[in-house]
Amino acid sequence: MSNHNLYVALRDAFPADLDATAVETVGGAQSGLRYSWRDLDRATAMVANLIDSLKLPPRSRIAVQVEKSVEALILYLATLRAGHVFLPLNTAYQAGEIEYFVGNAEPAMVVCSPANFGWVSKIAFQAGTRHVFTLGDDRTGSLLDRAAHHSDVHTPATCAADELGVIIYTSGTTGRSKGAMLSHGNMLSNARVLRDYWGWKADDVLIHALPIFHVHGLFVAIHGALINGSPMLWLNKFEPRAVLELMGRATVFMGVPTLYTRLLAEPGLTREAAAGMRLFVSGSAPLLIETFQAWRERTGHTILERYGMSETIMLTSNPYREDPRHPGQTERRGGTVGFPLPGVQLRVVDDAGRPVETGEIGGIQVRGPNVFSGYWRMPEKTAEEFTSDGFFKTGDVGKVDERGYVTIVGRSKDLIISGGYNVYPAEVESELNQMPGVAESAVVGVPHPDFGEVGVAVVIARPGTEPDPQALINALKARLANYKIPKRCFVVPELPRNTMGKVQKNLLRDQHKGLFS
Ligand code: MCA
Ligand code: AMP
Known about the structure:
Blueprint: H1 6-12, E1 21-26, E2 34-36, H2 37-53, E3 61-65, H3 70-81, E4 85-88, H4 95-105, E5 109-112, H5 117-126, E6 131-134, H6 142-147, E7 164-170, E8 178-183, H7 184-197, E9 206-208, H8 215-226, E10 232-235, H9 240-246, E11 252-255, H10 257-264, E12 279-282, H11 289-299, E13 304-309, E14 313-317, E15 339-340, E16 345-349, E17 362-367, E18 374-375, H12 379-385, E19 392-400, E20 406-411, E21 416-418, E22 421-423, H13 425-433, E23 438-448, E24 452-461, H14 469-477, E25 488-492, H15 505-512
Parallel strand pairs: 1-10, 3-4, 3-5, 5-6, 9-10, 9-11, 11-12, 12-13, 24-25
Antiparallel strand pairs: 1-2, 7-8, 8-18, 13-14, 14-15, 16-17, 17-19, 19-20, 21-22, 23-24
Helix pairs in contact: 2-3, 4-5, 7-8, 10-11
């Protein structure tokens, strides 16, 4: 059987000169470190050997909540290499959230930041996890200490294409988060398609400034660079000025829209500064047409917007060059997310599931080698989200025009996308509703100049109580990741309702839409 282990495919793409730089760190305490391709291979071998030495059951989950670092990337690659399942967790998650993920995924191994070892290990051990390691963003921690005793040679585990490689948790409109199960084949097929579609070249240099616990930074960016043998300039944290300085040495940049608006706020962003760049990619949230145009005017570059999901990786992209399936269409059109990627079938359907006419709006459904196999241990949820002919219901609402471009016009799911992170109002409301003095709450997304959209909470007090809005926000901070915290909270006598008694969130959104303008 041939080996479909994603790590093997990535390593096969390493350049011939293994001593060339694969990753260079920029900014922070660890700035200026260079990792060669050989370093990456050896270090992943050592961590993979450490993992093998633990004799974990096959396809064990390895849950990781650590600050961004090259060593965290090495841990990801080592997990693939050892044939286990990587489970990345946002560093903003609080104890209650981690408790849920660990309880649901039952990881055999957990890796956390040294500073969090106390509370994370308690949660992990209580859930039955036997191995808890630490990894700091300054090359400290028990993971590296232990890996240092292992050989730097390792034979990658043999994996089938449909074998589980990564679980990405994504919140739901109702209930708790669901773990999207992605196989080695899902990830590799998408990486290869993007390599060709975006014209990656070996001499490309990627500025990597996104977090690595979500699809954008972990897959689109890292897989993109590695499968092309292209080096990365690595920032542990997004810093607009550092990115600007790096543009002189790089060719590709990927960001969520907030990164682009923050870069536009820098006077140093000029045509000259961006002259050597080949490609700017945006995604994870809608890119405002104003940002798209301002970027073109300031830099002379047209941002290429693409669309994807945790469950599907990348689905559509504006063209980088002429797409033979759409002769003559080379325009990257602002406000659209481009064409379905090669291999992706995309259709727009009405409420009854029937395909709509070209240009008409409906629910977006997709099928393809990149689409996940289902939610971890949630067969009913999985069944609900797929049609009988195998299309995944994205929950996004959009249209395809006569030229084939896809536009996202909204979402049927109650979701706020803030700075590229997803916030499910139902989750925030459920926390609010448990707080003393709160009878009911509604959380809505309103426009925000920096994050695109942010949450605002509207709360009804229990009779005889007067909850303090700031105290509610403070209490939420202990329970939820910081980006989920509503930026404002109002206590009101009643919520607007329709005749069925359902809260009319559109009215709340309208009422508060000017809060941050
Ligand atoms: C930080 N804060 C936020 C957000 N980030 N509030 C709302 N939304 C956010 N995204 C708040 C914090 O709560 C804190 O508030 C204050 O801002 C400062 O926090 P800090 O961490 O210092 O913020 P930052 O470093 O400036 O971070 C902003 C950021 C970051 C760089 C835009 O949010 C980011 O890296 N976003 C990218 C997310 C991403 O990679 N998404 C891809 C998902 P306080 O002081 O009150 O506590 S993958 C995906 O969506 C699909 C598959 C796709 O298509 O790609
Ligand atoms: P996630 O759950 O983090 O995978 O987020 C996926 C969601 O992000 C999609 O279902 C879309 O609603 C949204 N999204 C991703 N890319 C874009 C884009 N370019 N424009 C609009 N929405 C996007």
